[in-house]
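Sorry to interrupt, but I need a hand with the structure work. I would like you to pick a protein and set down its sequence and fold. Please put the record directly below this note.
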Amino acid sequence: MKRKPTHPGVVLKEDILKPLGLSVTKAAEYLDISRKTLSAIINERQAVTSNIAMRIGLATKTSPQSWLNMQDKLNIWKEENKDYNIIPFPQDTEEIMEM
């Protein structure tokens, strides 16, 4: 099992907000989102959406895509660690006939 990817909210909190000395309230003002929303993101209770990624990207002068990529890696990791009862599609017509 691969290591769990870091939630983008943790990156935002540890690599940006803390070094800048920004409170959640002040950072939320800069991002024009509610304090509740930002708190949920940095505490890993809410995913980073494309809208939030755009806001973070503009505020930090980073790529919104990089924030979405972090979220996607985490989402895929979570899905890979679930049990699915999926039957693979047949690979050819003969296999379909056997069903």
